[in-house]
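for the recovery benchmark. tokens below, seq after
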């Protein structure tokens, strides 16, 4: 019983390095190269975990969140078995799963993150979809560009061979960007990521956005909560958020008769502006990073 209590104090994240087991340096396995970098930076050791059909390493992100890193001990086209076992073993919500994988359609060193979406021809993602169904639509895919060979006939051999020495600089940049983007994504959801920002830096725009969000939440907490059937005059620069009931307007008294409880807050022009961060947002919700990575800790 005590063990269950200790387990439940955390909400858990799963970060998966999609790979071909036995081929860790190949282009197809760039996902586990990201995880190996993270494990090295945090001085973590990998452990064989039969319950997860792979190797795992775990660390506490903060006082309330735990991260489980997974390297499937399987071929790419059946990586989904390992992901499914781990999700069930640790009771991890789908929206807290990150799949790190290679992408032929992105230049070497470019990375992006997207919630759900199609497999894009990637057999590892197809495997996760086939075993976990619609749950994969809530997972986040971190795509690491490996470039595409000149001929379609060369694709299979290309992804199964190792990166060349000339490509390694681009690979290392892509790995660093993937970890930075993942860190920013967690921070953007309000997670305390000080452990990671000490390694991979911060995004000032996200920090500013979070501070504005906290300020708005503080203001909302001070809003007047009206009791049932209260009459109040509301100016044209205010908006009414109903928690329950209906709103009807009395034209003669220029008041609003309210049934139920509500909150009234001022509308400023700043509310109409979208928070922006120094990343590129595509129309389908994908976020791409293509910039120089500045590390705060020596390589």
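predicted aa per position
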């Amino acid at each position: 019983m005590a063990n269950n209590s200790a387990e439940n104090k955390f909400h858990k994240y799963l970060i998966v390095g999609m790979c071909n087991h036995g081929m860790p340096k190949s282009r197809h396995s760039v996902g586990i190269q990201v995880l190996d970098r993270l494990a090295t930076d945090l001085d973590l050791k990998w452990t064989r975990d039969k319950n997860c059909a792979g190797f795992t390493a775990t660390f506490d992100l903060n006082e309330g969140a735990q991260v489980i890193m997974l390297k499937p001990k399987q071929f790419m086209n059946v990586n989904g078995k390992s992901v499914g076992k781990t999700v069930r073993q640790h009771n991890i919500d789908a929206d807290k799963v990150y799949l790190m994988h290679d992408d032929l359609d992105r230049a070497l060193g470019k990375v992006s993150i997207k919630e759900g979406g199609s497999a894009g021809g990637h057999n590892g993602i197809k495997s996760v979809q086939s075993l976990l169904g619609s749950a994969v639509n809530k997972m986040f895919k971190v795509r690491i560009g490996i470039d595409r060979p000149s001929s379609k006939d060369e694709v299979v051999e290309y992804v199964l061979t190792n990166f060349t020495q000339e490509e390694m600089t681009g690979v290392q940049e892509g790995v660093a960007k993937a970890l930075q983007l993942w860190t920013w994504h967690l921070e953007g959801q309000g997670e305390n990521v000080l452990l990671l920002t000490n390694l991979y830096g911060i995004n000032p725009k996200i920090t500013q956005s979070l501070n504005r969000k906290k300020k708005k939440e503080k203001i909302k907490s001070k809003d007047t909560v009206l009791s049932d059937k209260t009459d109040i005059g509301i100016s044209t620069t205010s908006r009414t958020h109903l928690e329950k009931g209906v709103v009807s307007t009395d034209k003669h008294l220029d008041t609003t008769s309210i049934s139920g409880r509500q909150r009234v807050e001022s509308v400023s022009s700043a509310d109409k502006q979208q928070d922006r961060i120094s990343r590129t947002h595509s129309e389908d919700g994908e976020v791409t990073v293509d910039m120089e990575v500045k590390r705060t800790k020596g390589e």
